[in-house]
Amino acid sequence: MQEEIDELLENMDHKEEIGGYFTWVIGNYEVVLVRSGIWKVNAAMTAQKLISEFHVDAIINTGIAGAMASWLKVFDFVVSKDAVHHDFDVTGFWYPVTQIPRMETSCFEADPQLRQTFLTLWEKEKKSELFQKCNLIEGRIASGDQFIADKDKKNHIIEICHPACVEMEGAAIAQVCYVNKIPFLILRCMSDCADDTGTETYEFNDKTAAVLSATLVKHFLEE
Fold this sequence. Notes:
By secondary structure, this protein is α/β, with parallel strands linked by helices.
């Protein structure tokens, strides 16, 4: 969403825009920033364009999510261990829910080095005034083409794939990166708890959660 990149756009010096893709330099790195849009197809198309046209070496997906793990609260963070499609279901052909036929894996693992770099950064950031009330864990990201604001749906997703959080894009980006052999990482800040209060709390917390997530990515890039 636009709220998820505004914080980064405001801090970009000498940026250049190419069709909604913003490029600028931090240290020794050229960075490409883009708003993927909502929905897995939009996210997948954007990820593939980053790889095919901008030739990126890695992709970091930042944004908001609904908490699934019971110990997560609003404004806590999840760094992806892996990502799955919670709404992929071909059980009629005798596959388990989330399993994609004819792929070596349906659980796309995030890059270990990027994960460790974020965890190391967090050890410094968690003491700051901005993040001192937040927690950060590693966990699974579950993606689907639906906003989860129902306790029964939440429990079903927990039962089939045990994610830390749920959102609508990460697994698509992860799958594109996996096929193209590009390292990736997903960082999500919790905007709600993906339950019967999800819509109400999301509307209240989405911008704050988006800013927190973008700020942490900004500090990561600066490091």
